[in-house]
Every structure is written in C-alpha cells, then in structure tokens.
Design goal:
Blueprint: E1 3-7, H1 8-17, E2 19-23, E3 26-29, E4 31-36, H2 43-51, E5 58-60, H3 64-77, E6 83-88, H4 92-95, H5 98-106, E7 111-117, E8 151-154, H6 161-172, E9 180-186, H7 187-191, E10 193-197, E11 204-207, H8 215-226, E12 231-235, H9 237-241, H10 245-255, E13 259-261, E14 276-279, H11 286-294, E15 297-301, H12 307-310, E16 322-327, H13 330-333, E17 339-342, H14 345-355, H15 363-384, H16 394-404, E18 410-413, H17 418-425, E19 434-436, H18 445-456, E20 462-467, H19 468-473, H20 477-483, E21 489-494, H21 499-507, H22 541-547, E22 551-555, H23 558-569, E23 575-580, H24 605-618
Parallel strand pairs: 2-11, 4-5, 4-6, 6-7, 7-9, 8-9, 12-13, 12-15, 13-14, 15-16, 16-17, 18-19, 18-20, 20-21, 21-23, 22-23
Antiparallel strand pairs: 1-10, 2-3
Helix pairs in contact: 1-2, 3-5, 3-18, 8-14, 10-14, 11-15, 16-17, 16-23
C-alpha cells in the first residue's frame, strides 16, 4: 500500500472511524460519533470533523463535563462495546472534562478524550488560556488527566498519531483495563501534515475475548463452594457487561445460592426471582444484608467491593467467611484475600456450574432466600404507597415512576438521596433497565447520562430521576436533548437543597448544616432544627426547564405525578416533571452501616454523642486476611 498526506487530526478521525469491535461473532463500529465544544485550541480537530461528516458524526454539547457524561452513559448502555469521542479546546474547556474522565475511569467505561493542548513548538508561548510553570516547560493543565485516565499520551508530532491511536484502542476495548483514554492534542500538531500509510485507515476489528479462568483457580473455587453451608453471591456490574445474566440465573436455580446486587449489578436477576435478595450493603435490603451477615462463602462476580457494597466491611460478619472472586481484572479478583477466578463472568459461571453439577444448598436455605425475597417485596409495596401528607415521600415518587415504566425502560440516577432508595426499591425487570452511576456518584450526571443511554438504545424509554441539587449543577444538557430530538422523561424531585447530605449531617450531629436552599442570614448557618428559618429560595425549576426547551409539568401529589407520567408518554420531546417531596421522610436503613468519620473532639454536644456511637460501630469493621 501507499501513503496519503493528511493532517494529524484528519488522520486520527479517519483511523477512529475504521475501528470495529467483535464479541461472540457480533461485529459493529466502535465509535458512534464525536461530541465537541470548539475553541482556538481544537481548530484542527474541527476541520477534520467537518471534512469527514460521513465518517464521524458530530454532536454539540453545552458543557464539556456534560458531554463526557453522555459518552459514559452511552458506553455503559453498550456494555462497553461502543464509545463516543469528546473534544475540547485548551484551558478551561479541557479541565472541564477531568471530572467526566474520573467518572468513566472509576466505572471502567471506555471514553476517548481529545483535549486541545498548547503549542508543541512553544513558539507563541504563553498562548491564551495557557498555564505556565517556571519549573517545567512541558507541563500544561492537560496533565490533570493523567491520574484519571487509563491511558494518556501527548501527541507532540503528527506521526505519533500512529502508535498513540493503536494504544488507545487496546485500552478502550480491553474489559480489564478500560476507562477514560486521553490523547492530548497540541493545537499546532493537529494542523501539521504527514504521509500516513494507507493501511492505517483500513477497517480494523478488535476482538473482545471471553477469557476462561485457569483450571486450578476453578478447582479451588469449587472446593470452597462445595464446603459452604450458607454461600452468597454478590453480583456486580461485570455480570451485566459480560451479558452473563442468563448464566447467573441458571447457576442460581441449579445451586440455590442467593444473590445480592451492587448498584452496578442491579438487574442481574429479575426482582421477583426467588434467589434475588436485591440490594446489598450500606443501601441494601434486609433480605440481602441478613444473609450476608451469616454467609460463610461470598462469591463476588464482577464487583469492586466498594464500601457501599461491603457496608464499610461490616456486612460479612461470619468469623470464618471466605471469598471467591470472579473478575476479568486480577486487581479486583484479589480483593479480600479471595480465591481469584480471573476471567469472563459468563464463562466462569458456566464452568463453575459444570463443576458443581449435582451440588446445591440445602432446601431450608433455599426456602429462606425465597421467603426473604417475598417479605422484601411487601416492604417495597408499603413504601410505594405510604400516603404521606402533605407532601409525598420520595419512595412514593419512585413507586409511581416504576409503575409507569415498561419492563424495558431504563431509569437513570447518580447522586443525592435517590440512588440509595432506588437501589433498595426499584423493581428491575431487565438487565439494562437500571442505570445508577454510583462509582463516582457525580452530581450533574443524570440528564447527560440519560442522553447517552437514549443515543445507545433509542428503542427504549428513558426515565431520568434527579434531585434539585444535582439538576442545578448541570441543567444545560437539557438543551442538548432538545437539539438532538431525544425524548427523555425527567422527574425532578424538589427537596429544597442537598437532601442526602442533610440526612447524613443529621446522623453525625451537624443538624443539616449547609444543606438547605434558604436565604442567607448574615453568615449564620441555617440548621434543620430552627423553628423559624429564613424562607426557601424562590426557585422555579419548571420554568427553568421550559426556558431550555423542554415540556415542563408541575405535580403536587402522587396522583398528579402519575397523570403527568402518562402525559409524558404522548409527548415527542423531553418532558420535565417537577414534584416537591418531604425531605425528612426517608427510607429506613436495613441492617447496615457506612463509615463516615465523626469529629473526635468537639464542643457540640450532639457530635460528642454521635462520636461515642461511631466508635462502637466501627469495631465491627473487618480486615479480610
């Protein structure tokens, strides 16, 4: 083959457009398009996108952080088999993407970031928006991406596109290594030309393998499981990304081992399956947490064992508990001194099932799990229908949305009080029906993430649940949803502030300090216990949503909410339903704890009391050795 003379930016766009992935014989393009906000720092990339619109569709965003969240939502909905590109100018446009990069990397989601960078040749230094360092000439703000990216490179020469692009694809398509990939692109290099080999732009297929675990790992795991009396599965996001939900269901039905679900793993089993105990950990159900307390073997499948999953390492209380960890990443498989089963979740479950043929838990344990499943569903029904007055409880709002949604609908949330309530209460019927970003729990993700989900699965109805605090962080992507002609149903829960932290601060003796949206009173803190607090801020969230192009509906009661949800089904554009709730009517915690340190020394009596209780609770934390 010959060569073709292209700018570095043109070469990168053409290369990305030719990348495909294949798993289980199904092949498709990896990149679904590019989001970008342009400035003087990414003119070269803009020119390439304009020149090749048929190769790389372009989408406009309002905020650089928001567009990376869109890409994360898209990648998660695609089970990490598809991604979006995001490009920004230099300086603040680039650093706006850092939070999105961290979210993608924490959640192991592939996104490709192309922030513009300062001149590689340093001729016109310092350029507009350049950060100068007297200690290093090769530093720019883009170095902030290094700790939050799974792969980082700065393209200081046009020919460097070749190795950097190949390295980027290796990481993006590797289930064990994926996350944010950042190719920092100096603005002069974007425009420089080079004679690129034509074969660089040929269609390239990246095979995503289903790695099989080693035989000795399987043997140790099988021996441990066979010796267990009360085993428990913790299903994480790896079950869903691997499309292993069918294998998990077959494994549970054969062995009788019950399942608790992490936030990312919720939907691994249908909510009404007798082996499904629902959410586990700090935001868990009493069904999952009670069996977790006595489990003698915990089988973690595709989980990172975050502090919410382990209730800050207090959930698994059996003195002799052992762990078997199935994970495509050896880093996660090694946690809690577990028996490592490194490989694809679906393959590992199938192999474990074959090796455990004829073995199951006893009938009493199987029956106990089924009983707890039924008892928990009755508790959900109670919380969905509290009839709380004068304002509805948040649990009633979730119940109304759950009832209005179809089995294939997708619910999206990320931060505040709702993720914990959703984890406990949402009746998930489809493996892709629950999308709560709780790895980074980033305020502002919800609407942007909903756009990514809808772009990845336009055939599904998308319900975005967002609190007023999170909505006000990043409302601008409503405009993006309108511009892209995407239909989202957004339920905006108004609790006049930061409700989740308000509840947390009440629990640690801080009386809701700094968590209500009320008028300031000369620097004096507004506390929850005040008899005559200053008025709430005069925010009109429905009017704000309408001004951004959405259909806006106010609902004052649960019945009005149900009517609004039915109306939204008939709208062709994004609808925002604003409903006020009682910030103090929360969902109980069930046999769980979360380690949030309380001041060891304080003049506040409430803090002193809480500190004593904290020290007692902390004694239950375990080190699994």
């Amino acid at each position: 083959m010959g060569s073709v003379r292209l700018t570095a930016a043109q070469a990168l766009v053409r290369f990305l457009a030719a990348q495909h992935v294949e798993r289980d014989g199904v092949r498709h393009r990896f990149f679904g398009g590019c989001f970008g906000i342009f400035g003087h720092g990414n003119v070269g990339i803009a020119e390439a996108l304009l020149e090749y619109p048929e190769l790389m569709p372009y989408h406009q965003a309002r905020n650089e952080q928001g567009m990376v969240h869109i890409a994360a939502g898209y990648a998660r909905m695609k089970n990490r088999l598809g991604a979006l590109v995001c490009t920004s100018s230099i300086g603040p446009g680039a650093t706006n993407m850092v939070t999105g990069a961290a979210l993608a990397t924490v959640n192991r989601l592939p996104v490709l970031l192309l922030p513009g960078d300062v001149f590689a040749g340093h001729g016109p230094d310092p350029v507009l928006q350049q950060l100068e360092s007297p200690a290093a000439g090769d530093v720019s703000v883009n170095d902030c991406f290094r700790p939050v990216s799974r792969y980082f490179d700065r393209l200081s020469r046009p020919e460097q596109v070749i190795p950097a692009a190949l390295a980027a694809m290796r990481v993006l398509t590797n289930p064990a290594e994926t996350g944010a990939v950042t190719l920092s692109f100096p603005q002069d290099v974007q425009a420089e030309a080079y004679d690129y080999p034509e074969e660089l732009f040929a269609e390239r297929i990246w095979h995503v393998p289903r790695a099989a675990p080693e035989e000795d790992e399987l043997a140790r795991a099988v021996e441990t499981i066979r010796a267990a009396k009360h085993p428990l599965i913790v299903a994480g996001g790896g079950v869903i990304y691997s499309e292993a939900t069918g294998a998990l269901r077959a494994f549970c039905e054969t062995t009788g081992i019950p399942v608790g679900e992490t936030q990312a793993g919720k939907g691994s089993l249908p909510y009404d399956h007798p082996s499904c105990l629902g959410a586990i950990g700090a935001t868990g159900t009493f069904a999952a947490n009670r069996l977790a307390a006595g489990a003698d073997v915990v089988i973690g499948i595709g989980t990172r064992y975050t502090d919410f999953t382990t209730a800050s390492k207090t959930a698994f209380r059996n003195p002799g508990v052992r762990f078997v960890n199935v994970n495509v990443s050896d880093f996660d498989a090694a946690k809690h001194a577990g028996i490592r089963v490194v490989g694809d979740a679906r393959v590992a479950l199938e192999r474990l099932g074959e090796a455990l043929d004829g073995w199951s838990v006893d009938d009493a344990y199987r029956a106990e799990a089924a009983r707890l499943n039924a008892e928990w569903d009755a508790e959900v029904a109670r919380l969905y229908a509290l009839g709380h007055q004068p304002l509805p409880a948040q649990s009633e709002v979730l119940g109304a949305v759950n009832d209005a949604s179809a089995p294939t609908s997708v619910v999206i949330c990320a931060a505040g009080a709702m993720p914990g309530d959703l984890h406990k209460l949402w009746r998930t019927r489809d493996p892709k029906g629950y999308h709560v970003e709780y790895g980074y729990s980033c305020m502002g993700y919800e609407i942007a993430g909903g756009i990514g989900v809808k772009m990845a699965a336009p055939e599904r109805d998308v319900y975005v649940l967002v609190g007023d605090g999170s909505y006000l962080m990043l409302p601008g992507e409503l405009v993006t949803a309108v511009q892209e002609r995407l239909k989202l149903t957004i339920v905006l829960v108004d609790n006049h502030g930061f409700n989740s932290i308000g509840a947390l601060f009440r629990s640690v003796g801080l009386d809701g300090f700094g968590t209500q949206y009320r008028f300031a009173q000369d620097g004096t803190p507004v506390l929850d216990s005040e008899e005559k607090p200053p008025p709430h801020l005069p925010l009109d969230l429905a009017a704000n949503a309408a001004s951004l192009g959405a259909v806006a509906i106010r609902a004052r009661t649960v019945d009005e909410l149900r009517s609004a949800l039915e109306r939204a089904k008939n709208e062709e554009v994004t609808t925002v339903i604003v409903v006020e709730v009682d910030r103090y009517e929360g969902v109980p915690g069930y046999d769980s704890w979360w380690d949030v340190p309380v001041a060891e020394v304080s003049e506040l009596a409430a803090v002193k009391d809480v500190r004593a209780a904290y020290e007692t609770a902390r004694r239950d934390e375990r080190r699994f050795l």
